[in-house]
Specification:
The chain contains nine helices and 17 strands. It has helices at residues 18-33, 47-53, 74-88, 99-111, 219-229, 237-241, 272-278, 295-298, 307-322; strands at 4-8, 10-11, 14-15, 37-43, 60-65, 92-96, 116-120, 122-124, 128-133, 138-142, 150-154, 170-174, 205-209, 232-235, 262-266, 284-288, 301-304.
Length: 323
Amino acid sequence: MSGVLVVMEQRSGVWNRMSFEALAAAQQLAAKLGVECSAVVLGADVHSLATELASKKLAKVYAAQHDLLNSYTSDGYVAVLEQLIKQNAPAFVLFPHTYQVRDFAPALATRFQQVLISDVIAIHDGPVFVRQLLQGKLNADYRHTASGPCFVSVQAGTFRADAVEEGASTVENFAPQLSAEQLRSKPGELFRESAQTVDLSSAPVIVSVGRGIGEQDNLGIVEELASALGAELAASRPICDNGWLPMERQVGSSGQTVSPKLYVAVGISGAIQHLVGMKGSKAVIAINKDENAPIFEVADYGVVGDLFEIVPELTKAIQAAKA
């Protein structure tokens, strides 16, 4: 066995954004091992999507097409991917850690008498796959020692989609053997999270506020900073638990996972549950009066001081620069 295969997720011809995070992880893993990286996309008609993938640095793009793949079923995906993996024998199979992957990937791994190493946040030389336990309080290292393929899903926001390497590859049609009798379940209503007014995961700039703001009436100064930066407003869990901001604005292990270009943490101490949600940020600016706050350990730039003095002055400076 050799090589890395990444399973890309799409719905009705639209990519799941996490697919490209998984692709970035797969390319990095292949580079570490000195092997080739390939990708597969499943559906009834995915030739255009496969052609789009062919512009990435891949050895090959497999277009796994069948009428019975028009709607997702776990049985269909498991059967098709089992055939493709047996035919090409990749050493590693990577997935984005989506709700769909959580549904079928464990069953697929079981077909090969393997387990799924899920929600991986880092890949070290070895390769060693890192997962978080107890809401991020502990990191655990996993090394695949079995002879079969290694199945891995990567956590959202851990690998950056913009790190995917461009290139040129070929598209190969894969015609799976699939019959209606193999599909024991019928497509149902797709899982949907509670309605959200904002998708923080796609925001390029986020200003996030924590309990250091003191009270709800003080949120205005942070909102003004977010407006000046053209940023989305977010918060740590205590702010949302108090009802000062809606729950869809929460960043953390029980909220949204984000990976903006800039994350401004205002009055946030940096509890591990919050850090889990924003660890994929490209640059972090922290403002906190406690110089020993954990947030400073992950910040690229730190300002120790009273946020009620610093934030208004920062807002004025940004507004003046834009004038």
